[in-house]
Amino acid sequence: ELYSDDRTEFIIIKNKQGKMYYSGELQLNIFDSSSKLSFGSIGNENLLQVDSVDHDQFFGGMNIVEGDELTLDNSFDFNKGLFLERATITCCIYDLLLYRRNIARKRFLKLLNDSYKNISKDLVCAEDFYQLLLLEKSHNLSFENPETLLTEITQHELLSSKIKLQAGNLIEAERKLCNRNQLFPKFRDSSDVNMPDLFRSLQKICKTGIERHRQNLLAKCPNTNFNLVCLIKTINHLPRSKLLYIQENDISLFTELIELTSEKSNLGNKMFPVTFVENVWNKFYKKIEESNRISLKLFIPITNGIYYFLLKSFRCVIEEIVVCKKQTSASELISFKEGELSIVDPISWSSSKLYHESLEKQKQLIFNLVKHFEPGFYSSQNRFSYTFKLLKEKDISTPANEIRFTCIPEERLTWLYIVDCALAPILCDKSNARFKKLSSSVLAGFVNFIQVTEQDRQESFRVATQNIIKFISQTYPYFSATSSTLTDIDSSILTKQIDVIKDVLRSDEDDSLLHHFSNLLDIYNEYWEHRRSIVGKLPIPCSIFKSDVESVMKKLLEIVHKACLRNFGEIFMIKFLRMYNEFLKHLKGINFAWFISKISYFKELKGIVEEVTKGNITAYKVKEPERFVEKLEKKQGEPPKHFVIETIKKLLDIIILLFNKADWSDEDCVKSVGDLLLAIGHSFTHFEDQTDYIDPEHFVRDCTQPFQCVVENCKDYSDFKKSLDSVENFYLNSRKQNQIGIQQALKFCEREVSRAAGKNEFQIKINKNILEDCYNRYTKKMVSLENLEIADILKELKKELGKVQKLPFQKWTPKFKQNVLPVLLAYLASVWSFQESKDVAIIKKRIEPHCVQILCILRLLGVDHEATGVPKHFVQVLTGQGKSLILGLISALIALTENEAFVVCYSDLLAKRDEKDFDPFFSIFSQFDLKSKISYNTFDDMAQKTLTRKVNGIESSLHSITEDFVLNKLNYKVVDNNKDFKRTVLLIDEADVFFSKDFYGNTYNPVVFLEMKELLEIQPKIWKIVESGITERDTVVRKIRELIYERINSEKYGEFGT
Q1: Judging by DSSP bridges, how do beta strands 45-52 and 33-42 pair with one another?
Q2: What is the dotted CATH code of the domain comprising 767-947?
């Protein structure tokens, strides 16, 4: 037993059968603080434990090697040193310092591993790897001491703080471990505590990260042009460090440039050749090869995404110049010698206009900007030099804005440069002083738009820039002091439009700025373009109609003006003007030829007019209007009206009537005007039938009165829209009604059946003779009913049904299908036609089912199937060709024969829509009880109905029956079996969706959730019983049952007492 002088330290040595065992406690001064080293033996093993003030614990196996013995003759300190020399740590069971060092190392390496995931997108990550690569190159041999490597990392100025922080943590942990181990017994295997080769790990991570970066870049390569792809893949030849000069955004830019070479311009040709992109890439690649930088941050980014958008703007300007300067092609304005873009400067204009000067300056500025941002030349360190001429003037900008200009990123300032350059020639001209003042707030708002919009949405900026230039360029002539053509209405419309733009630009909502600003300008530009090219250039068939055409123009402007005066948001303004612009396109397509009736013809007009004959009706087209008028004047006759112009004037008056709906909201009023404009635009196709009328006044009536009735008789917007849809459908369908006859329809059907049989092996045939006979029988009955009112049609139908034996559809004979069904179908179609045509009844025409729709119904019912019953059948009806009508008529026909129709669809919305649309039609046949035999369902609804039962004669769902049964509210003996479906026909809408994996083959799984509040009382009751000390299972169960019986016997659940 060896003790220190103060007896705080001791070593005990025991000899057991010739083997020495050591135990004791020693004090070690580690990190300037005392640590207690305890050791002893358990069985044949010596164990060592160290506890420090900092709780840096150690526990492991120990062995004492042979050597000088510890004796009482030596001092305790000498024995202590001798013991520590002979002691060897054989294994480490627990070492907190080692654990902390390993964790710090793991975190450091994990940070590097995580970093390379973003190496292609994050400049900070790329810079870290770049600096680590340079560090690796600066040492030919590995760092033997990891602390030396880590110290260099922590002191590196260009590495990120997070890398240096983790490296610092690892140094601290390593130093603590090394310092302790110097005073510690030695380890038998130093690899247990020495740090694995950090330099090799770092090399491996760098290699993996660079390879990941290479693969990321190659994955961004486009696949649209093989030669360019091969060109871009030359990055494989770059050294690892220089590969980091390229980021994903750079490859994305070249991908966009390659797409640009394949895009056709509005002139119909491809403006940018492939050699252009090749030339740009070569410049870009050469710059990388020649560069050798100490930091990526001083070099990257070497491209700017705005380059692509500037090229698109440049293309738009060239296109506009070609349009304005006629007999000029794009190849005369720009050239690509060996792929190098250059421009012809200056352009020779035939006339001097401010807009031409604007285009010239835009072309030059954007070309200079393209060169500034060109890959291979661009550097983020160099700013583009431009002096504002317009946007910094006091009435457009403020001193505060001028200061903020210097804080705007260069790629955003670029769009302000372009607007300033384009509009300065126009707005700085003295003749446009009035318009400059009017538009200054719009420009100030545009500056704000560029400044505050979140994220760099360059395409939005580009489109907005293009639109604001176009808007001001198109509208300034109306205000010009020298060439103003602005009417008072035009002035009011433009002022209101500018007010709306200002409101949008003042909005604090970025989304509003982004979504509405460009849309507004785009739709305004389209309006003014149509104002110039359509409204301002309406054809005048003859000088005598000049005032009529001017009246049409005035009415067109009045509609927009009245809409602008209404109080509604920019979204409705966009929708309204979009419909108005669409209407003008339809107006532009009208044939303004002057037709006269046979009554106005006399023989002296031969050669001046051209005869047009359709059937037994003859009309005349006036070929030489002015001579025609002269001839009439000699005969002292009054020129006949131009009935197309008269019709348009009347239709515009009807539109203006909608603004007089005093009890309608502004939104409903403007919405209805937009809807009416679109519907009238669609009806212009009916103008082609002008020569079908003996009396042209009837033509005017048929084109206008249905719309007039809708406007005059509607109570609210909902009523208006419903009636308008019917009228619009009439004009759309009336021209299609006779486009395809039964012969052509049967021919198409036979062709499709043959294709289906060949491709899908469907065992289907078609008998055209039977189908044609059935269709003729249907048509004959329809003709006989066309002059009857609905009430009379229903009386005739009742008589017809009295002669018919109402059999299940499985027993329908060929004779029944071919003779009875077409007649019954005609009754149904006649009622539907009468109902749908009520809004156009005034012109004595009806909307009727198309022959293809009738043919489809006849095929579905198997009229050409020479056997009893109705075969299962697929029918393909394209979108918009009347599936809803087919299903509605066939359902009604099935119900008339005392069978039931289940119409099912995957969509609850579509099913409810069709049910609602056809409810008025089915209601007309209330005496035949059709509605009870027709149901519109989803697939789940259908499954539920097949599982219904009758309880005491009342139909109930399986859900309610199950719930009542479980809760003891139901006597199962009164439940009848489910209904008989033998007379039920299943009609599946959107059958292709039904046969998808979401429906076909799946099961319907009904679940009942039983709600009883008393069930919630059982759990708390169990806890109360157990907390009272009762834990025996049978006793707990008995007490719970007592609670249940108590609740069952209560007044609320008295029925359970049975």
Answers
A1: antiparallel
A2: 3.40.50.300
